[in-house]
Amino acid sequence: MSVSALLDQWRDHLEIARRRSPHTVRAYVATAERLLLALGLSDWQAIANISNRDIRGHLAARRAEGIGNVSTARELSALKSFIAFACEQTGTEGGTDLRLRGPRVKKGVPRPVTPDEATNLADMVMATSAAEWTGKRDAAILLLLYGAGLRIAEALSLTGAVLPLGETLVVTGKGNKQRVVPLIPVVREAVAAYAQACPHPLDGDKALFKGARGGSLSQGMVQKAMARARKALGMPDSATPHALRHSFATHLLGAGADLRSLQELLGHASLGSTQIYTKVDAARMLEAYRSAHPRERD
After folding, report:
1. Residue 293 above 50 pLDDT?
2. Is the CB of residue 87 less than 8 Å from the CB of residue 48?
């Protein structure tokens, strides 16, 4: 089997069976391709039988090329998934390589935006858009991220079948796992305004958010709209679409939401992923203390 055929099967698995985001699919396929070309592998059995030593050597070569701990950890995660898929294709049991550990990566604390900043961003993407309907589209997406905690890929995977929106929305997240998220009125109204203004038909089985020519909207277009808006508002580069999801979680935690409920709303597989927001909230309280305490201002 050719390398191209192997990669096509891997890509289809990620896109269809795992419902991974386009960005993740590109990264995982590129990682697999580098491994196949570096080790000269061209069949699933050889991949399933790959040794710990080969994986370590390949990653060491990648480190020598200049990639850091975060990128190395991501590549190892992608390779583990790829090898596991190869084991499934061949019926190979176990896979000692799946026990490899990547470098320790210090998790950063997300930088949330304030509620006013989130509202201003939604308003600004409408003001800076080339067309009224695309402005309403981008505002609706940003409000879904901030008001419902969706990942950008989750928002863009919604179809016309969700219309008209009710008080809750069923979202398909990572690993094809579904969760129910509540929708506040401002989010429902923003999506309804976009749907009414969109010049393209919003068929039930097609993407809800359309590009200029009627096709599916890409993440890159949303990121560009966000970049224009934050520049116009003088906000830092950390104000990304994903930061809106962080803000959703941080503000709910600050308002008294418990971690388990927040885990469900965010679609996190483990509570550990959700616990990072306790650090965010603690950081905000410390900042408030330092700005208000008289001894801190001396």
Report:
1. no
2. yes
